Structure formats: structure tokens, C-alpha cells
Amino acid sequence: MARLTSRGPVLGTAALYFLVPVAASLWFTIADADGISFDVYSKGLGSEGLTTSLLRSVSIGLATVALGLLLMVPTTVAVALRLPKLRRVVEILCMMPLVVPPIALVAGVATVLSWQQDLAATPFYGTFQALIDRDFPLILVIVYTVMSLPFLYRSLDAGLRAVDLRTLVEAARSLGASRTQTLLQVIAPNLRQAVMGGAVLSLAMVLGEYSVASVLGFEPFAVWMVNVGDSEAQLSVAAAMLSLLFTWGLLLLLTALAGGRTVTTQSRRKTTS
User: Fold this and answer.
1) I need a surface site. Which of 61, 145, 150, 225 has the fewest CB within 10 A?
2) Is the pLDDT of residue 3 over 80?
């Protein structure tokens, strides 16, 4: 009881810190001269710019998560099993995006993209055009994958430390499982919560990232919100609220899926034993 009482002020302060700005933003969007109105939300949901930019950001975010997991899951597993001496090197490389400012990163990317004019007569010109496609800019997926490495690495590293990875792999291999089967059917289920945690953090980063997309001249959701805020402040804040609800809903959904999977796995283990 004493511990719960001591946590009360801390939890209350944290709740106020997070909920007061959200409540103020919500009130700003529904406050009207005649009272309370939700017209800005109905207008925002029907706005073509909002829907297009949000879908673009979500698709870029999902591609970023897929590419990041494709790179990081095998890498972290291989380092943990075969190359433990390289763990510190991999950790430093994955943490570099936290040290390098995004504006410096995007300045280098913009310089590389400017080379396309010199490569107009070569097959590489088509590659550059695919990277900067307006509907689905692959260059943003690549840059965001680099920027999401710290979130993915920390989440996966914590998940790997929580399981006896070597014993699981040796047991699977002794039962005749291939390396691919071991990775997909043995290691991946035990890293489900770590994978989902890193995926949610990466997706939230993509939805809220502004500087890289703005400098490169693209208009995902965050850039659209800033641009529309110059003329329609309420609509911009309402879009931010919708983005927040979307991120929270996705987090709750993934948490529920991970929790349900964990309970099912534990139940099967108890039944088997």
C-alpha cells in the first residue's frame, strides 16, 4: 500500500504531462463561436490531401518496418549466436543515427540525388527516378530505415537477452530443423513482443518525421500537416489528433495480439507438460 501511495504523485504528474496537451489540442479543434462543433473532423476525414498523405506515410512506414526487420533480425541473431565479439561494434553502428542530426543526413542524401542529372544517359538514371517517385519515394524508406535502427536494435537486443537463444537453436537443429525453419518457427515467435515493440516505435517515427521529407521535397503526413497549418490551423491540429489516435490504436492492437499469442503459447506449454 505504501509503495502504491508513493507512486501516485509520480503517475498523476506523468498523466497530466501527457493528457493536458492532448486535451488542449482537442478543445482547440472542437471549440467554436457557437459552442462545440466536430465539423473540422468531418471535413478533415473527407479531405483528399489528408487521406492521400496519411496512406503514403503508412505505406512508407510499413515498408520501413519490413526492411528494418529484414536487416536487423538475422543480424542480431547471428551476432548473438556466432559473433558475440562484434556485438559492441553492431551496437555502435546502430546507435549512430542518434548522433548524426537528421538535417546532416538528409543533406548528404540530397547531394547524392543531385547526381542524377549527370547520369541521364546511363541506366542508373531510371534507378534514381524510382527512388524519388512522388507516390512512393523509396529514398524515404531507405533513410527512415537507417533512422529507425536504434529503436529496432534496442528492442531486439532486449528480446534476445530475455531468452536462452543458444539452447533453443541447438534443440531445433537437433530435431532436424533447417536454419530458415529455426529462424521463422523457433526464434521469431520468442521475439514477437520485441519485434512488435520495435515496429511500433519505427512506424510512429515515420508518421511524425518532418525534416527529411520536407528537405527532399516530398509530402507525407507530417509535411502535409505543417503546410495546411498555415491556412487552416484547426484542421492541422485535428489531423495531428487523428494521427495520435491511429498510433495509439495500432499500439493497443499489436499489444493485444502479442499478449494473446503469449498466453496461448504458455497454455500449450502447460498442457504439454
Assistant:
1) 150
2) no
